[in-house]
Amino acid sequence: MAVVLQGFGALSGLSSSDSLNSKTLQLGSFKSRLERNGSVLFVRSEGRFSGSSNPRKLITTNAVAAKADTSTSSTASKPGHELLLFEALREGLEEEMDRDPRVCVMGEDVGHYGGSYKVTKGLAPKYGDLRVLDTPIAENSFTGMAIGAAMTGLRPIIEGMNMGFLLLAFNQISNNCGMLHYTSGGQFTIPVVIRGPGGVGRQLGAEHSQRLESYFQSVPGLQMVACSTPYNAKGLMKAAIRSENPVILYEHVLLYNLKERIPDEEYVLSLEEAEMVRPGEHVTILTYSRMRYHVMQAAKTLVNKGYDPEIIDIRSLKPFDLYTIGNSVKKTHRVLIVEECMRTGGIGASLRAAIIENFWDYLDAPIMCLSSQDVPTPYAGTLEEWTVVQPAQIVTAVEQLCSS
Amino acid sequence: MAMNRIVSSSSSISNLHLLRSLSQPLLRRPFSSHADDDKTILTVETSVPFTGHRCEPPSRSIETTPKELLSFFKDMALMRRMEIAADSLYKAKLIRGFCHLYDGQEAVSVGMEAAITKKDCIITAYRDHCIYLGRGGTLVEAFAELMGRKGGCSKGKGGSMHFYKKDSGFYGGHGIVGAQIPLGVGLAFAQKYSKDNTVTFALYGDGAANQGQLFEALNIAALWDLPAILVCENNHYGMGTAEWRAAKSPAYYKRGDYVPGLKVDGMDALAVKQACKFAKEHALKNGPIILEMDTYRYHGHSMSDPGSTYRTRDEITGVRQERDPLERIRKLVLSHDLATAAELKDIEKIFRKQVDDAIAEAKESPMPDPPELFTNVYVKGFGVEAYGPDRKEVRSILP
What we know:
Radius of gyration of chain B: 23 Å
Shape of chain B: globular
Number of helices of chain B: 12
Strand content of chain A: 15-25%
Largest sheet of chain B: 6 strands, mixed
Oligomer: heterodimer
Number of helices of chain A: 16
Distance between the termini of chain B: 73 Å
Distance between the termini of chain A: 34 Å
Shape of chain A: globular
Number of strands of chain A: 14
Number of strands of chain B: 12
Strand content of chain B: 5-15%
Strand order of the largest sheet of chain B: 2-9-10-6-5-4
Largest sheet of chain A: 7 strands, mixed
Structural class of chain B: alpha/beta
Order of helices and strands of chain B: HEEEHHEHHHEHEEEHEHEHHHEE
Strand order of the largest sheet of chain A: 3-2-4-5-7-6-12
């Protein structure tokens, strides 16, 4: 099966590298397990290694990739149901609210109105006004309230109508949300989820097109994830709600109407794991959120031109999944980061620093980073198009990288 | 006056070792029996009446017992001693950074504790040492935290402004002015959500009373009928700015507009107790209420502020002479013959020794180990149990 061979190739690339010492042993046993069990193993990932005294990241991210593009070949799950991304978020939210009575949602217009992007539609009639709370327009205080409630054990989900509005709550998110677990010496946990749409939309204007990943990434104590498909949106939402740490879930305004078939059974994705979208050989392209689709579009052109890009959706913005990323870098030796964040101090800048620090010896070329321009997003359509990275720019960048 | 009364020594009070045995007969009951007497009802009138805004203020006559009065005295004496000891420790450079002292305001903490249970929540700003003590914190943990030692209540990682005690409902300890008010309203929300029948006291100062988030949180609390009691500890100075220079309307109990308010003499522990009892009943039935405690701090805003550039020394000594909370309770105790002045002085001496012992013990506590730098940033276990639709578990542990 094509899937198995691709993955096999990826693993064999790994095990041949010399600098891995203890890791080689682990991968070796993993490889033999793969050989033994054939194709079905590929979809699965086993977290437990017998006799492993050094439990490191053991998952195969290919499991997710196989799920996404070869749903017909995965024999493990039934066909599933088709839905849009915002419906997937709602499904995840609803399942978690059913499962745990401490989960509540608070935000502007989430209750009776159903949510400005319909993520919480239908939840208020079902769960009542105390669990799906319509707040006044007071981000600072309702974020603080959710954090205070979380200190006692509730698990609130804060929805920012647009991520940019959460800047008003920066003090609460940074000082109280991120730091209370530390400054109280571990007495309080803050299991909140802060979610909302961000990113550049269709001519929404400068203040409604903000990318807050860069502002929150250095707050200690926070975890950040970005969803990009209905499958990972639902899985990450569930994982974020179950996590004891404060998690910021970044959604994108333009991705809410993506349609995909997701499994019927329950699943929870890992918050620190990246997704292998397309395995490849020549160059590693790291991306997240909406830029994944621009990269996929560019990939079509690139494949026609003879390149074989490996595309990874990093998903976890803090902490980075350096295991997956590192394995990829060791294989391809060339990295391109495509992001929607600003050039200065964005996620790409941090990721670049992390890769250089950890994988310098494996790089054949400087890491290229394509990010949005350091300008407020203009209203005019043509100008707005040029603030974000376009597929043509990605193709040019890959050609440049591979020719050096 | 009280010095003329004599008490004969008896074994039940030997632990206090404060009696002089004399041959005269017993003229009043020994101190210890008063300390346990919670049956005799004493009625005390507050010197200043309550002022209400949109509510009927409670009565000026407050019922109390000898046990309660003596416990007020003891708690306040201990708090006063602790704060003065912290002052010396700061000058000896054992406490660094910011140290905000509460002496002068002890009545608020002590009166509040008398009216509520440990299931009710208290959240305050950075002037939190005495509130922590009132909630059940020990002297050793407090001093260890101030000195940044492992034995501190936050393992030395919080400091003066971050005292917490989850098991007795003390939620801190916050450095940013006003940020604790939405947190407090959130605690009240959680209490309503869990149907606990308890209330939250969110304390803030006259400086924080002008913060927007206060009014935002108050609006939400009033809308959703949350059992939140906002207590403004008005010590008349927001750091160096007098209240009349910072607020157009310094009647903080009225600033809630649609929310009822009550102005209380915050230097009178009994008045505070009455007000908090009233507020608790009100909050459980009718939603939020604002209490303004008219109080005063003797020290400056923090240890780096002498406290005399924006107010006169005469003012400070004037308040100390006329309104000191400890003296007020001392006078009450003496006038009701619950103890002699000498006994009270001896109690203070004992507390001085207790505080010194606690400081010595706290000094013994080691500094946190270097790996502690990285603990408690995230909850242990980091990620979450993740699994795919085929139910195979994936557990990720980062290196």
